[in-house]
Amino acid sequence: MKFRIDRDALADAVAWTARTLPVRPPVPVLAGMHIEAGDRLKLSAFDYEVSAQVSTDIETEEPGTGLVSGRLLAEICRSLPPHPVEVTTDGAKVMLRCGSAKFTLLTMPVEDYPTLPEMPPAAGAVGSDEFAAAVAQVAIAAGRDDTIPMLTGVRVEIEGETVTLASTDRYRLAVRELHWKPERPDFSAVALVPAKTLADTAKSLTSGAEVSIALGGQGSAGEGMIGFAGGGRRTTSRLLDGDFVKYRSLLPSEYAGLAEVHTGQFIEAVKRVSLVAERNTPVRLSFSQGQVVLEAGTGDEAQAVEALEATLEGEDIDIAFNPGFLLDGLAAIGSDTARLSFTTPTKPAVLTGKPPQDGENPNYRYLIMPVRLTG
């Protein structure tokens, strides 16, 4: 194997592929990055759950394959000087030359490396930036407790031209709807994708204009898998098993009150007031006509109070939230105005941005459980 490649192109491709390398590989070869030089360079990584493959342009003198330590290759490529890179194999070694720098890496047996899973059939495409933003909005509410795998996922529902993403950790629920271009107008599917994998993948595929989403149906190639491709990169992930909560029934159909606050000022005030909130203690919000008063701390501890301008439709209400969960939602709504819709102080509230036009449904909803106020 012998090829030349631009230094930045190699570093970018290696860094992207290395994201998938397992921290503690069950077998040594899974710590390797598979290199295949032909018409183009293909770099692959796989941990039996997630696969990643990128292809990029090279000048090939001799086609060939190799398998080297992925993390070491990533560290080397990150530190190379700004010169073209020449990669060659010599027996059981791979050599990189870049300017006056030269590295020699030992190879692993290529024949022991597992075959990457097939990409499921393409289901449709969505704008890469919008997809990354939507996934980020939803992934924040996914659980992190691996003993309940179902809650660590994002539910992806596809119905015609609408994709709905949802996740919950039982204390909050995030739902985002977006439009996409399906391969078939009547296409429908449901998948539960690990939230961390989905968030990392969506963020890393914004180099292309669109992301192609591939989903396998029962009995088809790639059953139990989901695939994403864009900008010369493709990744697959195993889907999670288990029935996701029936989240639509959790979203209130009508509200007793609605408040609006400037998002940036709200975020800063919550951060300030929550400085005195001991671990797991809430921030209390008292909404009345024209203002909201934020409070944290109790009589025996440090206390903080701050008032902000707010509009309120409905009766005055006192409600309390975990400040971290509230800040996550405020950061995700993507609007200058935060709209909080309530039913009662003990029932979930829904946080949204202000829709562009009155009467429109917001495409992002963040439902948050209040903390019961005592006394």
SS elements, strand count? 27
Judging by the overall fold, what is the CATH architecture of the largest domain?
Answer: Roll
Please write the CATH class name of the largest domain: Alpha Beta
Strand content: 35-45%
The tally of helices reads 6
**SSE-based structural type:** alpha+beta
Helix content: 10-25%
Distance between the termini: 74 Å
The major pleated sheet works out as: 9 strands, antiparallel
Strand order within the widest beta sheet: 6-2-3-4-18-17-16-10-14
| CATH-derived topology of the largest domain | DNA Polymerase III, Chain A, domain 2
Radius of gyration: 25 Å
Give me the CATH superfamily of the largest domain.
DNA Polymerase III, subunit A, domain 2
Low-confidence stretches: none
Query: How many separate domains make up the residues?
Result: 3
Q: Quick one: overall form?
A: elongated
Mean pLDDT: 93
